[in-house]
Amino acid sequence: MNVSPWAYAPRPDTRISTVRLGVWLFLASEAMFFGSLFSAYVLLRTGAHAWPDATSLGAARALLIPTIMLLLATRSVRNQLGLTAVFGVLFLLAKLLAFARLLDHGQHPASNLLIACWFVMSGLHWLHVAGGVGATVWVMQSKRTVTAPHHAERLHGLWLYWCFIDVVWLAILVSFYFI
Amino acid sequence: MGDWKPAGMHLTDHKTVGLQYALTASGFLLLGFLLMLLMRWQLAWPTSPLPSAMAVAVGQDNAPSGFMLPEFYNQLVAMHGSVMIFLAVVPLLTGAFGNYLVPLQIGTRDMAFPRLNAVSYWIYLAAGLLMLCSFFVTGGAANSGWTSYPPLAVLATRGQDYWLVGIIMLGVSSMLNSLNVIATVLQLRAPGLTLMRLPFFVWSQLVAALLLLLAFPSLQAAAIFQLMDRLAGTSFFLPSGLVVSGVALQGPSGGGNPLLWQHLFWFLGHPEVYVLVLPAIGIVSEVIATNTRRPLWGYRAMVGSVLFIGIMSMVVWAHHMFLTGMGTTLGTFFQITTMIISVPSVVLITSLMLSLWGGSIRFTTPMLFALAFLPMFGLGGLSGLPLGLAASDVALHDTWYVVGHFHFLVAPGTLFAIFAGIYHWFPKVTGRTLYRGLGVVHFWGSFIAMTAIFLPMFTLGLRGVNRRLYDAGLEYTHAQGTLSIQGHMTWAAVALGLLQLPFLVNLLISARRGTLAGDNPWHATTLEWQTASPPQPGNFAVTPQVDRGPYDYSLPGHPRDYVAQGERE
Amino acid sequence: MIERLLPVAGSEHAVAFDAVLKSVHAHIAIQALAWGTFLVFCLIRFRSSRQPQASHRGIAPVLPMFAIAVVIVGDVVLLATMALPAWLARATMPSSVLAATEVRIAAEQFAWNIHYPGPDRRFGVTSAALISASNPVGIDRTSPDGTDDVGLLNVLMVPVGRPVVVQLSSRDVVHSFTLNEMRVRQDATPGLLVRTWFTPTITGQWQIACSQLCGLAHYRMRGEFSVLSQPGWDEWLRREVALIPPEAGLR
Fold first, then answer.
1. What is the rounded end-to-end Cα distance, in angstroms, of chain A?
2. B-chain residue closest to C39, CA distance
3. Which residues does residue C225 pair with via DSSP β-bridges, in sequence order?
4. CATH top-level class of C99-242
5. Which among B151, B331, B350 has the least Cβ separation from residue C87?
6. Model pLDDT for residues A45-85, shown as the tens digit of each residue
7. Is A1 inside any structural domain?
8. Residue A155 domain-assigned?
């Protein structure tokens, strides 16, 4: 009602809506967060005398299915929000199984720095996906309470967030398995 | 955002959130002060028992028969710093002043995301209480300094976990708050209020928010790593082959790097210093412009400087680490960046000094504090020079000189700015003016006491006396001549505490009985003075329309000595 | 004024470092004095009772530009001509270090374990398993160079006039090895071996201090530190070698 006129429409001089700017600022902070995690990973890895082989985390192809789930979740934001939540939950479950399998094989965070980095970084990514599922459900739920342009801005913000988690996930995969 | 309900407004209104922050952070400020008094007592009389009232408050576990244990002293060291920085001064500047004033100064109803703003406060409160709870767990509170260097912090008692979780929560809170400030400033400015027409206070808040938004995540990441090291047995910060108390450390795999923490910590730590400093300069700028009756000198240069500081503060962090054995290239790089960042700081303080020239200076209570801020803050800044050069840092690193340096910046510096801000905006917040007499007593008392506490620290540091020593250096021959100075400093600290009583009395009495202030008691120009005192819900009856800069004081040929920013010709 | 406060300058580089310290403080004093005078002048000259009408324009920008330029030039000159050269000269170890006295120091909560290579000037093998009250460094006496090594707790003795190289490490947490009179302060970080060096120019008896908070007894993590004349040091080393217990450190 009494919110600023530029909540969902771009303000003429900044050329962005407030909702969208908020999402971008949040993502900037998140980028610094994951950036810190990655620089720590790089520093630890380059400083190590010996770095264990990534196959101790399980074969890379086992992560193919969760990766596809994640990408499908992002793809569905625009048209099928319900599917986004479903694919997101599937990713979460698949990753939980993968974590459990690692622990079963005696690979604990305390085993070595590679496993520790993996648990922390992909674990924090897991939490971000869980947050994404929560946000998706919230946007779906509140669709009827807000105006159409407002909902559209929220959808766009949500889509940006899912893209961000995809990029982080791919960066984790590449840096642990292929570099 | 979106649903503005007058009924629910109470908890999400930016003025409510600002006041919640103000009261809570003031409570933490008092607590940090009390922790400091305990510490100072121990430093002044390291071999005597505490006075009985203090001993009772501290408890038998921490001070058996009144003699403080070194374990407890180290908790005081860590918690005084953490409480003051993370729970008191930064929340006062950003949470209290920022939340309350930014929407008013840009002529809008509220923050961009009012609900997130309220959430940010409640997370901050929870984090603060969690950190304080740690005093009551086994082994007491965190005891590895506010810097929490591993491996010491990884090996520390349970309280460190509370500290780390608290820091992670504070990161979330400050992210929500700073995101809000940036979005508010950029998106909700009143019509015609272009960026270069913003009051300088708003600029300082904007840059401080950017720093918090981008730098705090690095400490959050570090805190998560350290928590994992402590709880899950990882070794992010633990190298191989640690032998603690003669026993090889079992469990962690090793291979980690203690310096990694220092890098991640100071990547936040240094921008955090500017978060402590920039909004303070912002407050002082407003007070000086109002009480000299002329515009800030070099407003454009000041805006440029504050932006430049924002960028540069991200590339100076390792000047806190000159003694770790860093290479010559890195060392040279960080000394040069440190010298470069001192230039915009000089521009800021010079501009404020020059603003006095040609003014018609009114010595109101806020102006007294703002004027004292200039030399005190200047001294704090200048004493950073020898610490920023590795060659002179060697003699001073980790000595009392460092303590003197940053306390001059934060205590008679930032804290005086906060006092100036309270005296300046109290009439806006309550609708009543603070008594001047009590304010003058408060000012001169605090000014003298602060100087007496912090100035001797430089001499102690030059003599090579280290900080964070439980016995103030009793063990060292070179410190023997300095022990009596510790006593003087402690009495000055006690005096400083007593001299806050007139201030408290003033606040309590004036809030009810002070003379009614009216909308614009100082005849100031910025938008917050163009509405009622206290401002009604929604702030402005009519959205202001702006077509002039923030400081149109003493315009030539104008009948009045100010033209308010929202005024139409 | 500052030299009255500073500890005695007992090493070669201390003189250069103190020169930086003094110049920086002179720079600070000049700025503080100039700005202080300016501030007081403004407060008197421009008080509202004397100056009821403020000037919108204020001071012309020429003088301030000049003032800021002076500060910048001062900073640059200090950095480029004194601070960086003094520090770089110390960061790179000179070749004369070949003739240096070498010691290894392992910091631990809350003591300095000091390992002298003995008359053969070569360090023997050490092992954590051999650490005991009589062998704080854990010298392996069966190793070829280890028979004449001296390991002492909290006692650092060095000869005057020759460079001393300290190989610094830590067994547990971060400590900071400090010799105030030598202007030496160097963090000892576990997992990292760093070298620091100094050339004592005067003899005397002082203390080693720890500058980094390292736990509850950090405040009393001090050691003895003496600079002896060369003959005095030779004699001291000979006596220490003679004191090596015959069975200590044997596997």
1. 52
2. B353
3. C156, C206
4. mainly beta
5. B331
6. 999 988 998 888 888 888 999 999 999 999 999 889 999 99
7. no
8. yes
* CB pair distance less than 8 Å for C218 and B383: no
The domains found in chain B, sorted by start residue, are: 18-238+253-530 (1.20.210.10)
Spatial separation of the C-alpha atoms in residues B484 and C91, rounded to whole Å = 37
Q: Which two tokens stand for residue C75?
A: 């900073």
What values do phi and psi take at B526, rounded to 5?
-70, 165
Other Cβ atoms closer than 10 A to C236: 16
pLDDT at C248: 58
Residue B227's closest chain A neighbor by CA? A120
Cα-to-chain-centroid distance, residue C128:
27
> Chains A and B: how many Cβ contacts under 8 Å?
128
pTM over 0.90: yes
- Report how far residue B365's alpha carbon sits from residue B506's, in angstroms, rounded to the nearest whole number: 12
DSSP run (H or E) holding C187: strand C184-188
Find the range with the poorest average confidence among A36-50, A155-169, B242-256: B242-256
Beta pairing partners, C155: C224
What are the b/e assignments for B134-158, b being 16+ CB within 10 Å? Answer: bbeeeebbbbbbbbbbbbbbbbbbe
> DSSP of C55-70, one letter per residue?
-SS-S-SHHHHHHHHH
Question: Band of the pLDDT at B6, cuts 50, 70, 90?
Answer: very low
Task: State how far the Cα of B359 lies from the Cα of A2, in Å rounded to an integer.
Answer: 41
**pLDDT, tens only, A114-150:** 999 999 999 999 999 999 999 999 999 999 999 999 9
- What stretches of B466-513 show up as alpha helix (H) in DSSP? 483-498, 501-513
Range of the domain at A107: 33-178
| % helix, strand, coil for chain C, step of 5 | 40, 25, 35
Q: Give the residue on B whose Cα is nearest the Cα of C67.
A: B350
pLDDT reported for residue C249: 57
What CATH number does the domain containing A45 carry? 1.20.120.80
φ and ψ at C155, to 5 degrees? -130, 115
- Predicted local confidence at residue A2, as pLDDT: 45
Other CB atoms within a 10 A radius of the CB of residue C33 amount to: 10
| Chain B positions in Cβ-Cβ contact with residue A48 (cut-off 8 Å) | 255
Contact A110 B253 (CB under 8 A): yes
- Confidence at residue C250, expressed as pLDDT on a 0 to 100 scale: 59
Q: Is the pLDDT of residue B530 over 90?
A: yes
Q: Average pLDDT, whole number, for chain A?
A: 93
Compute the Cα dihedral for B249, B250, B251, B254 and give only its sign: positive
Residue with tokens 């899950």: B232
Segments in chain C below pLDDT 50: none
Looking only at the bridges linking them, the beta strands covering C164-170 and C101-108 are parallel
**Residue A18 domain-assigned (yes or no):** no
